[in-house]
Structure formats: C-alpha cells, structure tokens
Amino acid sequence: MFQPRPAETGSFPFPVRVQHDRPANEFRLVADIYPTQNDDLTVHVGTNRVRLAVASGDAVFERTIAPLPSRRVFGDDHRGAYNNGVLTLTLETRVGIR
C-alpha cells in the first residue's frame, strides 16, 4: 500500500514530502524549493539516502534523507524534474545489501 509520510521541516527551510510505494518498488521525493534557480540546486543519490543542497544568497541549506526500510536500496532507474520551484525525484527501490 502507498504510505505517504508527513512533510518534514527543520533547519532545511523548504517543505519536503517523501513516499515509498513498496509494491511498485518506487520512492518519490517532492520538495518545494521556490524561488531557487536550477543552478542553485544539487542532488546526490546514494545507495540508501538522498542529499539535497540549495544555495540561497550566502547560505547553503542541506538535507539528507534516509527513508528506506531495512534491506531496501535505490536501484538504477531514476527520474528527476524541476519545474516552477518544485523538485520531483522518482527512484527505483529494491531489496539489496547495504
């Protein structure tokens, strides 16, 4: 079943929502980072975590998200889009060894 997680806030001033759809083997991250420009955004995807970095003026805001349950890792299939201040990442998940 598709189980959304609540938006998370903190020192990263942009709302982020993550969802893991285990039956579809898919993880989705949506971040509202308006008014950030595309060049001010950095995304790194590791085996089991995603790191976002947003440059805004003289500051850089970073957020690392490790949302996957035990034994799940990100696969090779991934898509990303940035449109009108909204970043959407869709990543394949699979059972793997960390």
Task: Explain the layout of strands and helices.
Elements lengths: L2 E2 L11 E6 L4 E7 L8 E5 L4 E7 L2 E7 L6 E12 L2 E10 L3
How would you briefly describe this protein structure?
This is Hsp20/alpha crystallin family protein. With 98 residues, this protein is mainly β. Helix content is 0%, strand content 57%.
Entry keywords:
0% helix, 3-stranded antiparallel β-sheet, 98 residues, Hsp20/alpha crystallin family protein, Immunoglobulin-like, disordered N terminus
Could you walk me through the main structural features you see in this protein, from its secondary elements to its overall organization?
This protein is mostly beta strands and 98 residues long. The protein has one domain (18-95): Immunoglobulin-like (Sandwich). The protein is 0% helix and 57% strand. The chain has no helices and 8 strands. It has a 5-stranded antiparallel β-sheet with strand order 1-2-3-8-7, with no helix packed on it. It has a 3-stranded antiparallel β-sheet with strand order 4-5-6, with no helix packed on it. Strand 7 (72-83) and strand 8 form a beta hairpin. Residues 1-10 have low confidence and may be disordered.
Largest sheet: 5 strands, antiparallel
SSE topology string? EEEEEEEE
Strand arrangement across the biggest beta sheet: 1-2-3-8-7
User: Tally the helices: what do you get?
Assistant: 0
Helix content: under 10%
Separation, N- and C-terminal Cα atoms: 24 Å
Number of domains: 1
Question: Any idea of the CATH topology?
Answer: Immunoglobulin-like
Number of beta strands? 8
Uncertain segments are 1-10
Q: What Rg, in angstroms, do the CA atoms define?
A: 13 Å
Helices and strands: which structural class?
A: mainly beta
